[in-house]
Queue: 2 jobs
Job 1
Amino acid sequence: MSKVKYYYDKESLSYRKIERKKRTTFKYASLFILAAAFFAFIFVFIASQYVESPKERALKRELQNTQLQFELLNKKMEHAEAVLANVADRDNNIYRVYFEANPIPEEQRRAGFGGINRYKNLEGFDNSKLIIESNKRLDILQKQIVVQSKSLDEIAELAEEKEKLLSAIPAIQPVNNKDLTRMASGYGMRTDPFTKARKMHKGMDFTAPRGTPIYASGDGVVVRADSGSSGYGKHIRIDHGFGYLSLYAHLYKYNVRKNQKVKRGDLIGFVGSTGRSEAPHLHYEIHKDGNKINPINFYYGSLTAEEFNKLLEHASLENQSLD
Ligand SMILES: [Zn+2]
């Protein structure tokens, strides 16, 4: 029930009812509603600055959890990086050195990705930095793993080659020389048995009775078994590959033919005194890339350090060669 208001009319000297127009009532009502809405809006706005809605709280928690998970992931990446760095270190300093491959430079192992910005679609968010950094880190890690994997492939190949090289390279004495008494003359300046002049003896002489077995000192192919080279008499040449060739001279008899494949330790012929030879003996040479080198360094396959020293002593005696 609305209040009825009166006013005093001086002319009629009586109280009269104040008639309120409908329009005025509507105007006041509208104003009130507007003002109420305005203050309500201000209130909600201010409140929302200080009070979180349940939805906001849930989102915030989720964001915090995501950030935490990213941090944990980064920790794991750090660990993976450390393990990989250790593998790379061993790779460079042990495996690659052992198989005579050049170490892979650090820049190549840790190279990122140049050129176009791969992370453009990750930009423009509050967490962009975190996400981009993590992505970069993982990309580099992935690339490092690829580099490492390729390096190991290369090493596996080299290891296989090395195995072949190790069985091919001359590595035993060509005659049975258990007590090491067969060494007659080594590599170096020696007196020529015929002219008595000093000259370079580019091989090793093993003294042995005619018919003593001669063995291939490494795997290879017989490239010559003839007496066509002056001075050597009946002789055998074995090509071992990798630039190595062994030569056995002054033979009495052959046990192999040209083009025959031989293994280390195979019986290839017998000691004799054919060609330019003073007495039955085996003249043994090792060629590397066409040069005659000292065979003394190629007996590691069958000698102990002590035996090697004894052999070295015998071989370095400045005596007369048997040629
Ligand atoms: Zn000789």
Job 2
Amino acid sequence: MADYSTLKSRMLLHSCCATCAAYPASLLKDSFDISLFYYNPNIFPEEEYYKRLADIRILADNTGITLITGEYDKSGWDKATKHLSGEPEGGTRCPLCFSFRLKKTAETAREKGFDIFGTTLSISPHKDSKVIIRTGESLAARIGIDFYRTDLKKKGGFKKAMDLSRKYSFYRQSYCGCKYSIRSNTV
Ligand code: SF4
């Protein structure tokens, strides 16, 4: 008979890039059966999108963690955020961007039979973890799946992420991801 006490909950972990995903994956993989979800249609230009995807693939291959890649829905993201093109990074466009990506993550998690979804977004010191958590929880209630509530940048999380990124020699981008953030040069 199977020993069900050792079964872990299945988590779909939205991952914005390998640099941000390596530490959360190492932190969570003992408690959850994780799959990484690369869904980032905000990333511009296309070469940048594929550059970040290439490193996520390396992370998945090195750790044996499954990688699921979502659609690169550039036009959908552009349409949703165009009216906020003049906003600075950290302004009102960013919560919409979080919601765009986390909604798809929650829907995919539910469709594919995951127990819970989470995101690596809160590891960045430039992103408001409270907004990310509020967004995740609201989507969880609407879509009917649990959200993993955590602020990954706490307890030196960002530094640990940078250390691990250096160890793997991952590409580290100089801007958040969208075309509007290129001008502000932060991650
Ligand atoms: S700055 Fe970053 S979080 Fe904000 S809209 Fe652009 S890609 Fe999304």
